[in-house]
Design a protein that fits this description.
The chain has 734 residues and is of the alpha+beta class. It has 3 domains: 34-269, Spore Coat Polysaccharide Biosynthesis Protein SpsA, Chain A (Alpha-Beta Complex); 281-511, Spore Coat Polysaccharide Biosynthesis Protein SpsA, Chain A; 541-732, q2cbj1_9rhob like domain (Jelly Rolls, Sandwich). The protein is built from 18 helices and 40 strands. The strands form 10 sheets. Strands 15-14-13-16-25-18-26-23 form an 8-stranded mixed β-sheet, sandwiched between helices. Helix 9 (309-317) runs parallel beside helix 10. The N and C termini lie far apart (96 Å). 44% of the residues are buried. It binds 2-acetamido-2-deoxy-beta-D-glucopyranose (3 copies). It comes from Branchiostoma floridae.
Length: 734
C-alpha cells in the first residue's frame, strides 16, 4: 500500500510535466498525481443526461461521453435486459489505456445518475476498498435470479452486483470488458455478474462490491434508507442504514422519480438561501425586440362548465406578450360558454396572429383537441406551446415571459386553489400511479421553499418547448390507453425521460374549483363566493370597497346619519337585475303577501325576494363579510349579528309602482343598494328622509345607502318618472 502511494507520487510528478507538454489530456491528475477518467454512455442528450453532466461539472469531474448520437442498439434497458452496447463502447475506449496500472477509470450510467462528490473523495473511498475494481451493489439479483446462490455471503449491505456504476484500474477493467465476447443487445449486468461470480476471476481482478454505498448508491429497493442532509454549502444524500454519504446516486428501476426529487436539491441545486439551478441556462427576453419574440401557440381548453370563463379569457388577453407572436387555439366543449368565447373572439381575436376555434358543435373530445393544439403549434413552426385550462386564472401578466425565460423542456407555473393545498402538480406518485405527497409538497405549495422543481405530474397550465414537438421520441402524448388526458400527458413525458418542472419562484395565478358551478342560474358566477372567493370578489366586489374600510378614508354622508358606500361592481348589479327579471315573478305590490309569515306587508313594493332566486344565503354572507364591516365603521360599537329576513329587489316604473309612501323600516339599520343608473336608465327616483327634509337622488350604481331603520329616518321613495329603477333592500337586524 505504502509503496504504491510512493510510486503514484512519482507518477504524479512525471504526469505534471507531461500535462504541460500535452495540454489537452483527457486524463486528469490531482495533486497527489492520481490519474482519473470518467466514462459514461449516452446516445441522446436527454434531460437526465444534462443533469448528470451538470453534476459532474459542479464537482469538477470531466466526463468522456461514449456513443453520443449513435443509434442505441442495447435494447430497452428500462423494461428489459440489454446494455451490451455499453460494454462494447467502453472496451473500445479503454483500448488505449489497457496497460495502464495506475489510471483509475470510473464508469457510470448517466440518464438516471447524479454525481455528488469530487474526485478526491471518490478516490479516497476507492482506496479504502483495497481492491482493483469495485462495482456498485443492490438488493435485487438481476437479470438472472438463479445466480443469487453463487454470490459470496455478505454480513452487511446489499449483496448483488449492479453495473450502473463501477470504478477500477484501467488494466483490470480492460481485461474485464474484453474477457468474453458480448453483443449490443446482450445484458451488460449479466456480463459483469458472471465474471464477478467466477471466484478465480474475482480474485484475479481483485473485484469487490460496494455493499454499503460508500461510493455508489443504487436506489432500487433502498428508497426508505435514504434521506437528504441539508447543508448551506452542499446538500448531500445520506444512507441512514449504513451511515454513508454516497458519491454517485443511481435512480435505477422505479426510483427514477425519487431521483428527480433528490436532484432538486443535491449537486448544489438548491439551498434555503438560494435556488442555484433556477438561474442556470435561463435567458432574458429583454434583449429581444418585440418583433423578434418567439412564436407561441396558446391552447385554451374549456372542457366543462367552469366559473369565471370571461375573466379567464381576459387574463389570457392581459398576458404581457406581443399578440402578433401568438396564435390562439381554443377548444370549447361546452355550449354554456359558447357566448363567452364568441364575444372574446369578436372583441379581441383580431389582435392575434391567428385564432383557431373548435366549437362545441364540432364535438371534439379533449384528448383529440389537445393533440390538435400541438399540431397547430407544429403547423406554425412555433417556438413554444402554452396550454391553459379554463380553471386557471393567470393573474400575473408576466407569466408567459417568465416561463419562456426559464428555458426548460416542460414547465408549469404553480397555481393553487384558494384556501386549499390543492395545486397543479404532484410531488410524488404512488404505486397506483396516482397522487402521493412528497415530503416537500406543502413547503412548495405554501412557498416556504421556492424554486423550479422537477416533479412527476403537472396539470392545468404548462409551457412546452417547441423543440420537443419536432421528433416522435420527445413528442408528448395525450392518448395513452384508457388514461385521462392529463395522466397520459405526464406518463408519456416520464416514459420519454423528459423532465417536467413546476416553478413557484413567482406568483402566477390560481385554480378555480368547478364542482359547485351550476348552470341552472343565468349568472352562476354569482354563487361562487364560497369556492372561489378571490375570483368572485374580483368580479363582484367594488374595487374601492377595501379602501372604504381604511380609517383614513372619509365616508360620504349625503343626509344626517345616512352613509354612502361603494360595495359591489356594476357587473354584480347587472347580473342581479337580470337574475330577477329572468325569474320574473314580481309581487303585485299589495298588502297581502303570501311570502311573509304574517301574510301581510304594511308598505308593499313590487319586488322579488333573494330567497326566491336562491341567493339569500349568499346575500347574508355579503351582509356579514362586507356590509357589516362598513357599518362598524360608521356606527361603531354596534356588533351586528347580520340577520335579515327581508332582502329583496324593488322595481319602480311609472306605469307600475313609481314611488313608495313615507314609512319606517323594521330594522336596526337598512341598506339600499342602487342597481342601475340615475339619469341613464331612469329619471326621477331617489330617497327622501322627511325628518331632515333631505333627499338622495343622484344614486350611484353599486353604491349603497345605510341608515337607521326603526326610528329617526322616516323616509319615502321618490317617484320614478321614466324608465325602470331597481334597488336592492335589506332590513338588517329586525
Ligand atoms: C437553454 O438551455 C439549453 C441547455 O438546456 C442551452 O443550451 C441553451 O443555450 C439555452 N437557451 C438559451 C436561449 O439560452
Ligand atoms: C325642503 O327642502 C326643499 C329644497 O331642498 C325646500 O324647497 C323646502 O322648502 C323644504 N321644506 C321644508 C319643510 O323645510
Ligand atoms: C323617457 O325616456 C326616453 C328615452 O330615454 C325618451 O325618449 C322619452 O321622451 C322620455 N319620456 C318622458 C315622458 O320623459
Amino acid at each position: 500500500m505504502a509503496a504504491r502511494r510512493d510510486s503514484s507520487i512519482l507518477a504524479g510528478l512525471a504526469c505534471a510535466v507531461f500535462i504541460l507538454l500535452c495540454s489537452v489530456s483527457e486524463v486528469s491528475s490531482n495533486r497527489e498525481g492520481r490519474k482519473f477518467v470518467t466514462f459514461t454512455v449516452a446516445t441522446d442528450e436527454t434531460d437526465g443526461f444534462k443533469r448528470f453532466m451538470r453534476s459532474a461539472d459542479k464537482y469538477n469531474i470531466q466526463v468522456q461521453v461514449l456513443g453520443m448520437h449513435q443509434e442505441w442498439l442495447g435494447g430497452d434497458v428500462q423494461n428489459n435486459i440489454g446494455g451490451g452496447q455499453k460494454v462494447l463502447l467502453l472496451k473500445e475506449a479503454l483500448k488505449k489505456y489497457k496497460d495502464d496500472k495506475d489510471l483509475v477509470i470510473m464508469f457510470s450510467d448517466s440518464y438516471d445518475v447524479i454525481i455528488t462528490a469530487e474526485k478526491e473523495e471518490i478516490l479516497r473511498k476507492f482506496d479504502d476498498f483495497n481492491a482493483r475494481v469495485v462495482f456498485g451493489a443492490e438488493g435485487f439479483c438481476w437479470p438472472d435470479r438463479t445466480l443469487a446462490d453463487l454470490y459470496p455471503e455478505v454480513r452487511l449491505g446489499k449483496p448483488y452486483l449492479n453495473s450502473g456504476g463501477f470504478i477500477g484500474y484501467a488494466s483490470e477493467l480492460y481485461q474485464i470488458v474484453s474477457h468474453t465476447s458480448i453483443q449490443n443487445q446482450h445484458d451488460d449486468q449479466l456480463y459483469y455478474t458472471r465474471i464477478f461470480l467466477n471466484p478465480e476471476l474475482r480474485e484475479k481482478f481483485k473485484m469487490k462490491l460496494d455493499h454499503t454505498s460508500e461510493i455508489f448508491q443504487n436506489m432500487n429497493g433502498a428508497g426508505a434508507d435514504l434521506t437528504l442532509k441539508f447543508d448551506d454549502d452542499k446538500t448531500r444524500l445520506r444512507n441512514r442504514v449504513y451511515n454513508t454519504e454516497p458519491c454517485i446516486i443511481h435512480g435505477n428501476g422505479p426510483q427514477k422519480l425519487v431521483l428527480n426529487h433528490i436532484g432538486n436539491y443535491v449537486a448544489d441545486s438548491w439551498s434555503f438561501d438560494e435556488c442555484h439551478s433556477c438561474k442556470e441556462n435561463t435567458f432574458s427576453l429583454k434583449t429581444y425586440k418585440r418583433d423578434d419574440y418567439p412564436v407561441v401557440v396558446i391552447g385554451l381548453f374549456i372542457e366543462q362548465p367552469t366559473p369565471f370563463v370571461p375573466e379567464f379569457l381576459n387574463k389570457i388577453y392581459n398576458l404581457d406578450y406581443p399578440k402578433n407572436k401568438i396564435v390562439l387555439f381554443i377548444h370549447n366543449h361546452e355550449e354554456h360558454h359558447a357566448g363567452d368565447v364568441q364575444e372574446f373572439v369578436k372583441n379581441y381575436g383580431g389582435d392575434y396572429k391567428a385564432v383557431r376555434e373548435v366549437t362545441p358543435s364540432m364535438n371534439m373530445n379533449q384528448w383529440y383537441a389537445r393533440k390538435q393544439g400541438l399540431s397547430e403549434c407544429i403547423g406554425v413552426k412555433c417556438d413554444y406551446y402554452l396550454s391553459v385550462d379554463a380553471d386557471v386564472q393567470i393573474t400575473n401578466p408576466k407569466t408567459l415571459q417568465i416561463l419562456i425565460q426559464q428555458n426548460r423542456s416542460v414547465i408549469a407555473p404553480m397555481a393553487t386553489k384558494y384556501g386549499k393545498l390543492w395545486s397543479n402538480f404532484w410531488g410524488a406518485i404512488g404505486d397506483d400511479g396516482f397522487y402521493a405527497r412528497s415530503d416537500d409538497y406543502i413547503d412548495i405549495v405554501q412557498g416556504t421553499k421556492k424554486g423550479v422543481w422537477n416533479v412527476p405530474y403537472i396539470n392545468n397550465v404548462y409551457l412546452i418547448h417547441g423543440s420537443l414537438l419536432q421528433q416522435p421520441k420527445t413528442m408528448p402524448n395525450f392518448i395513452v390507453g384508457q388514461l385521462d388526458a392529463d395522466m397520459a400527458f405526464c406518463a408519456s413525458l416520464r416514459e420519454k425521460g423528459i423532465f417536467m418542472y413546476v416553478t413557484n419562484m413567482d406568483t402566477f395565478g390560481r385554480l378555480t374549483t368547478t364542482t359547485s358551478y351550476s348552470t341552472e342560474h343565468l349568472h352562476p358566477d354569482m354563487w361562487q363566493m364560497y369556492d372561489n372567493r378571490p375570483d368572485w370578489e374580483e368580479k363582484y366586489i367594488h374595487a374601492d370597497f377595501y379602501k372604504m374600510l381604511d380609517p383614513k378614508t372619509e365616508v360620504e354622508m349625503p343626509c344626517p346619519d345616512v352613509y354612502w358606500f361603494p360595495i359591489v361592481t356594476e357587473t354584480f348589479c347587472k347580473h342581479l337585475v337580470e337574475e330577477m327579471e329572468n325569474y320574473g315573478e314580481w309581487s303585485a305590490g299589495k298588502n297581502e303577501d303570501q311570502r311573509l309569515p304574517s301574510g301581510y306587508e304594511n308598505v308593499p313594493t313590487v319586488d322579488i325576494h333573494m330567497r326566491q332566486v336562491g341567493f339569500e344565503k349568499e346575500w347574508l354572507t355579503i351582509l356579514k363579510d362586507y356590509v357589516c364591516k362598513l357599518q362598524l365603521k360608521v356606527f361603531p360599537g354596534y356588533f351586528s349579528p347580520a340577520q335579515a329576513i327581508m332582502n329583496f329587489v324593488v322595481r319602480y316604473h311609472p306605469q307600475e309602482q313609481p314611488f313608495l309612501r313615507p314609512h319606517h323600516d323594521s330594522s336596526t339599520f337598512t341598506i339600499n343598494l342602487a342597481l342601475n343608473k340615475a339619469g341613464v336608465d331612469f329619471e326621477g327616483g331617489g330617497c327622501r328622509f322627511l325628518r331632515y327634509n333631505c333627499s338622495v337622488t343622484n344614486t350611484k350604481m353599486g353604491w349603497l345607502l345605510m341608515h337607521p331603520g326603526r326610528l329617526t329616518h322616516y323616509h319615502e321613495g321618490l317617484p320614478t318618472t321614466n324608465g325602470t329603477r331597481y334597488i336592492m333592500i335589506s332590513f338588517v337586524d329586525p
